[in-house]
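Can't paste images in this forum, so I'm doing it all in text. The chain is below; anyone willing to post the predicted structure tokens underneath?
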Amino acid sequence: MPRERLIAGIMSGTSADGVDVALVALDRASRPTLVHAAVHPFDAATRAAILTLAEPDGGDARAVARLDFHLARAYADALSATLAESGVPIARLDLIGCHGQTIAHLPNEAVPSTLQAGSGPALAALSGVPVVYDFRAADVALGGQGAPLIPFVDFLLFHELAARHAVGVLNLGGIANLTLLPAGVTDPAQVVAFDSGPANIVIDGLMRILAGADYDRDGQLAAAGNVHDGLLAELLRHEYFNKALPKSTGREEFGSSFVAELIQRGKLLGLSDADLIATATMLTARSIARSLESVSRQHRPAELILGGGGADNATLRKMLGAELPDVTLLRHEDAGWPSDAKEAIGFALLADAAVRAVPSALPNVTGTREPLVLGALAPGRPPRVWPDWIGQS
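Text version of the structure:
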């Protein structure tokens, strides 16, 4: 049997607000336990570089190369700080799973592609620990969306909660990712998952321009405004909401261009800043509710577990509750996992699956032509004797 191991998951998401690090221990049966988690905010210059490069024509190859290595160092620093906080020596760490920072995700173009900055080999060299990275490329290469990837993790963490009734897991990061676990689920192939549309990306984009803030703290500005039903109906006609599954989205569809057009529409309608933020917040809530209306009865959840930064937005939670009156809204904490660390935990578990040759790309979720083991492996410095659990499923 494989021995117990310790894996670090490292994640920076669409909101580009910082680095999430989770230290996850797995026992001999691969059952995970969170040892420690921390969030390390990006400095203003790093965040600006990420947001600029993520836009169309936001930079050249040199800018990509600089950010690739800059983020590797930022991830290494965040890992070092997290280990120091936890009292765990780096020599105890067996593996790192690092998602990197998505700067382009184009699975639906004539030549499908995806790119995450934050060099895995550089992080492995800097930390001395083997790194699994580049989780999306293989899925996209075989016709998949390359997203969402966390549904495999949602199955591992929450399938026991779906013993009697269907359970949904909703990550409210920049994009809203939904995982639906039918009652009695026993196999990841039974999971339905997709991006429903924007979560915080539009709200945050509006806040930066209109209020000079990174986000709407506790949904306070949205609570002070009124939803404009006509504008909301117009926004919901966006082609993404009517796409068939599988589907995923990002800044390419709901980034700065979408926000700029929304501000222009708001000016023409005479909306206040609060009204515009309220309408964008309702766009998130209603697009999630409508996406749940479209799934089969066996996948309609009785409980929806909320995570990500948007779970802290009281106005968004209130709107979701009104849109989904028959669904009990829970937090990740109610299920025993901290919301802020969920995706970092996820990439620790995806790295573990990669080195044990367990497929984590789900054709029914991403549309890839076959189940795939995801991620590339960069050895640490100096090369280690591989632990006995490497390659054992």
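Residues 5-146+341-378 form a domain with the Nucleotidyltransferase; domain 5 fold (CATH 3.30.420.40). Residues 157 and 342 are 10 Å apart (CA to CA).
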